[in-house]
Automatic annotation (TrEMBL):
Protein name: D-beta-hydroxybutyrate dehydrogenase, mitochondrial
GO biological process, one term: steroid metabolic process
Pfam families linked: adh_short
Superkingdom of the organism of origin: Eukaryota
Molecular function GO labels: oxidoreductase activity
InterPro entries the UniProt entry points to: NAD(P)-bd_dom_sf (IPR036291), SDR_fam (IPR002347)
Entry coiled-coil feature ranges: none
Length: 350
């Protein structure tokens, strides 16, 4: 009986060692340069190239030899960033107008890419969702139409001309709708056995005032990506999430003037009772709590590196988390501590 038990224990130890060796080998294999794919003949569509991180990502991938389709939310002729990007990159760079609120521009972009694939390519190698624009404010302050449409624009990519005219850019910031664009591009991506990359916020599970709609939409995108990954595995398509830190979109991702105009617009729509309850001082302090994002310098290099890794590696990771040590600790505490204990450390005072 003792001998049989010893054999079982030995088999368990040997099995664990085998798993450990296999994991070390896989990690080592991933780190070797032989796992990097060949860039020539591969096309990459990047959305949100008006943001610093997507702009630099497009430039870097062009330098590596990829054919880049840089999507801008505004017409190309109206974008100074698009003109500069075109001037500073190779002839492979394609500048596109990709406006998620317009089905027409999405279809035109999909048709253009299908007709201008790199020579010999069967499809599109990568689709990278990098735009990142959000609605800000506590739940009671944001008009319900903005909440509903922010979710539509973030996840679905729905067009609504009334919403655009009723709530202009000073009232909300939008992120491209990932679902509709992904739908249109999936046939091309499947043909190339390519990959889809979602840039989200690593803090979407960290509760914070004013950023409720941001946390909700980013969590929705992550769940969407996780399910899509399972759906696409049998088709040979990789899906990765880059859950970046707070400053991932780059310097001054939130315009200070737009932030103050948004706050002023929402304050004017509150009822007399709401204004009396919250008070103008509290309201202004809450809305300007994100003011640092319009002023502080951002280190986008960690996020940029993992975005490039998600495109160039043969075996990309399912989830990248380029966050600071402080953000990593806060995420860990938010997920594992009891809410009452977490709120003692990070919560707002009563």
């Amino acid at each position: 009986m003792t001998k049989q038990k010893s054999i079982v224990e030995f088999e368990e130890i040997y099995s664990r060692k085998q798993v450990a060796v296999s994991e070390r080998f896989y990690v080592k294999l991933k780190r070797q340069h032989i796992t990097i794919v060949s860039a020539p003949g591969k096309g990459v569509l990047i959305t949100g190239c008006e943001s610093p991180i997507a702009w630099y990502l497009a430039k870097k991938l062009d330098d590596l030899g990829f054919t880049v389709y840089a999507g801008f939310n505004v017409p190309v002729e109206d974008s100074e960033e698009a003109k500069i990007l075109k001037e500073e990159t190779s002839g492979r760079m394609k500048i596109l107008h990709v406006d998620v609120t317009s089905e027409k521009t999405l279809l035109e972009a999909a048709l253009f890419i299908s007709e201008h694939l790199p020579y010999g390519a069967q499809g599109l190698w990568a689709l990278m969702h990098c735009a990142h624009w959000i609605a800000l404010g506590e739940l009671e302050w944001i008009p319900f139409g903005v909440l509903r449409k922010s979710l539509d624009l973030n996840l679905l990519g729905k067009n609504d001309s009334y919403f655009q005219s009723r709530y202009n850019k000073t009232l909300f910031l939008k992120r491209e709708g990932v679902a509709r664009l992904t739908q249109l591009m999936l046939p091309l991506i499947r043909r190339a056995n390519g990959r889809i990359v979602f840039l989200t916020s690593g803090l979407n599970k960290v509760p914070a005032p004013v950023r409720g709609i941001q946390c909700a939409t980013q969590a929705a995108v992550e769940s969407f990506a996780a399910c899509l990954r399972q759906e696409m595995r049998p088709r040979g398509v990789d899906v990765s999430v880059v859950a970046a830190g707070e400053f991932s979109p780059g310097n001054a991702w939130l315009n200070e003037t737009e932030l103050r105009e948004q706050a002023k617009e929402m304050w004017s729509k509150l009822s007399t009772e709401q204004k009396k309850t919250y008070g103008e001082d509290y309201y202004e302090a809450a809305m300007t709590s994100v003011d640092k994002y319009s002023k502080e310098a951002a280190d986008i290099q960690p996020t940029l590196r993992v975005l490039i890794d998600a495109v160039t590696r043969t075996f990309p990771m399912a989830r990248y988390t380029p966050v600071t040590p402080h953000e990593k600790f806060q995420i860990f505490f938010a997920e594992h501590l009891a809410p009452s204990l977490y709120e003692l450390i990070y919560g707002t005072k009563k």
